[in-house]
Design brief:
The protein is an alpha/beta fold and 254 residues long. It is built from 8 helices and 12 strands. The strands form 3 sheets. Strands 6-9-10-3-11-12 form a 6-stranded mixed beta sheet, with helices on both faces. Strands 2-1-4-5 form a 4-stranded antiparallel beta sheet, with helices on one face. It starts with 6 loop residues before the first strand and ends in a 7-residue tail after the last helix.
Length: 254
């Protein structure tokens, strides 16, 4: 990892009326690092990642990419900086098929480089989609089925595959294994672990499953009530201390 973080959040503040959802949050994500973002419901985790991705622009503080301040006010601007996210609601179009969902906003056309003026290259998109989902060992009932007819696990896997396909700097995953079975969960976790080395992508992983955090994360950041309350290297030995930070328990002797 280099000394300069690929993504840094400095003093992030976000308010919704009288409610302060983020109150001076700092976070660093280094190149090829997987950071677990932990905390109970309402801790501010989802607000933080939606601020990073331009869904909720910050009211205070700043974001830095490779050490340079940037203004990310929309999801499109986040994508231009190589940041992709999979939220808990997945943001899939239930009435559209698999390939269309994977490539919406990033369609392949013929001739290449003429988006908006060429023809959709459905064959190339289908071939690429098959390869990506095969790596996750996702089994689908039919490529022509609409997303709305698929299981929660299949939908989750498609959303993860879409984000992995187009992130080139930072991938943010909000509870990516929540609706998955054992095999699909293992495949997604294996993919998260491989991303830094194989694709030079850094990952922020939100999860309530401490076993998953220990398995794939290099570093853990704990939030509570809109603040960062601690950091730790997630291991079997530190798991109890991390859980204590999440619930607000005081360490022994304090």
């Amino acid at each position: 990892m280099t000394d300069v973080p690929v993504l840094e959040v400095q003093g992030a503040v976000k308010r919704f009326g009288a409610v302060t959802a983020l109150n001076g949050v700092d976070l660093k994500l280094h190149r090829r690092e997987v950071v677990g973002l932990l905390g109970d419901n309402g801790a501010g985790k989802s607000t933080l990642i939606k601020s990073i991705t331009g869904v909720h622009p910050l009211d205070g503080g700043q974001l830095l990419i490779d050490g340079k301040p940037v203004a990310i006010r929309t999801p499109t601007e986040a994508r231009e900086h190589g940041i992709e996210a999979v939220y808990q609601d997945l943001a899939l179009f239930d009435n559209l098929d698999i390939v269309t969902n994977l490539y919406i906003g990033n369609e392949l056309t013929k001739p290449r480089g003429l988006r908006g003026f060429g023809w959709l290259d459905r064959k190339a998109m289908r071939k690429d989609a098959e390869e990506r989902l095969d790596k996750l060992q996702v089994h689908l009932p039919s490529w022509n089925s609409s997303i709305g007819l698929m299981s929660g696990g299949q939908r989750q896997a498609i959303a993860v595959a879409r984000a992995v396909a187009f992130a080139n700097r930072v991938l943010i995953l909000d509870e990516p294994t929540a609706a998955l079975g054992l095999r699909e969960t293992k495949n997604v976790l294996d993919a998260v672990r491989r991303l830094p080395e194989e694709h030079d992508i850094s990952v922020i992983l939100i999860s309530h499953n401490m076993d998953h955090v220990v398995k794939v994360c290099d570093h853990a950041v704990v939030m509570r009530q809109g603040r960062v309350v601690g950091t730790s290297k997630p291991t079997v030995d530190t798991m109890q201390d991390i859980v204590g930070m999440i619930v607000g328990a005081q360490p022994e002797g304090k």
